[in-house]
């Protein structure tokens, strides 16, 4: 289990299940502050190729545009830069409008991205 | 003094405004990193303020409160307030010019209007103006996708515009700007106006 956290957020990656769980509020200051999370996602994707990696944002309450930018960089890394052949699945809550929009925007950049929307 | 207006911009004093909240930030010698946390705290405060106003109005009208809708509205308020504050902190005139930044939220029956006013250098204003014109003359959705693709290739792009474009594309916000400058002063005061319709 690899964990990145501070008092506002927690990113937890379990190599056994190939799931990254994001919790709390991500309000970090620009790309440099998001770099450790981006590196964690990139290395997880490389580890789980050609299978799959799931990113669960259901417990993520808030994310600023630098966070969107970081996830954008991640999907572009998978689709365009490294051309990794694994399935990325995003798990989000149906009731949280921004989570659904985020998934749809990421899917535009990575058409193979799977979106799973949960009631809770 | 010269003034330039771009996009959907009206001046702050609108008589039909029901309530407003204003927060002013004095110039601080604290490094940006230390002040960063204040953005989220202020954005939370603004969204809580909005919640009280919204809930009491729903009660007055005898409407049933929709918790999911309220949560999404609060998130929109927090997102917009936080992005505006982050931009005002990132792009500001050097500390030798004692200018304050101010965020102002006007609450109406059918909409919310944010204003953020801060001073930037003439050079920053020039590149911001180029970005604004690009947003106004092109399809924001296409620009948003382009900005996402470009920022993935450029390391630490300083003004990707993703924050402002996400307000337009993901939150249906209307944006407008006022640039004010005084002859002989190397600063430009920028007021950004963001309108969120309540029915979003």
Task: Summarize the entry for a quick read.
Chain A is an alpha/beta fold. Helices cover 41% and strands 35% of the residues of chain A. In chain A, strands 1-2-3-4-5-6 form a six-stranded mixed sheet, with helices on one face.
Q: How many whole angstroms does the radius of gyration of chain A measure?
A: 13 Å
From the 3D structure, determine the CATH topology of chain A.
Transcription Regulator spoIIAA
Structural class of chain A: alpha/beta
What CATH architecture label of chain B applies? 2-Layer Sandwich
Number of DSSP helical runs of chain B: 5
**Portion of residues within helices of chain B:** 40-55%
Number of strands of chain A: 6
Compute the number of strand runs of chain B.
Answer: 6
Largest β sheet strand count, sense and barrel closure of chain B: 6 strands, antiparallel
Q: Give the class-level CATH name of chain A.
A: Alpha Beta
β-strand amount of chain B: 25-35%
Q: Determine the strand fraction of chain A and express it as a percent band.
A: 35-45%
Distance between the termini of chain A: 24 Å
The succession of helices and strands of chain A, N to C, reads EEEHEHEHE
Shape of chain B: globular
Main β-sheet, spatial strand arrangement of chain A: 1-2-3-4-5-6
Largest interface: A-B, 28 and 31 residues
Multimerization status: heterodimer
* Uncertain residue segments of chain A: none
How would you describe this structure to a colleague?
The complex is a heterodimer of chains A (120) and B (200). Chain A is α/β, with parallel strands linked by helices and 120 residues long. Chain A has one domain (2-118): 2-Layer Sandwich (Transcription Regulator spoIIAA), CATH 3.30.750.24. Chain A has 3 helices and 6 strands. Chain A has helices spanning 30-48, 65-81, 97-109; strands spanning 2-5, 9-14, 19-26, 52-63, 87-93, 114-118. Chain A is globular, with a radius of gyration of 13 Å. The mean pLDDT of chain A is 96. Chain B is of the alpha+beta class and 200 residues long. Chain B has one domain: Heat Shock Protein 90 (2-Layer Sandwich), CATH 3.30.565.10. Helices cover 46% and strands 25% of the residues of chain B. Chain B is built from 5 helices and 6 strands. Chain B has a 6-stranded antiparallel sheet with strand order 1-5-6-4-3-2, with helices on one face. In chain B, helix 4 packs antiparallel against helix 5. The longest helix of chain B has 29 residues, at 32-60. The model of chain B has no long low-confidence stretch (mean pLDDT 87). Chain A binds chain B through residues 8, 25, 27, 29-32, 62, 64-66, 68-69, 72-73, 76-77, 80-81, 95-98, 101-102, 105, 108-109, and chain B through 32-33, 36-37, 39-40, 68, 71-72, 75, 78-79, 82-83, 86, 90, 144-145, 148-149, 151-153, 155-157, 160, 162-163, 166, 170.
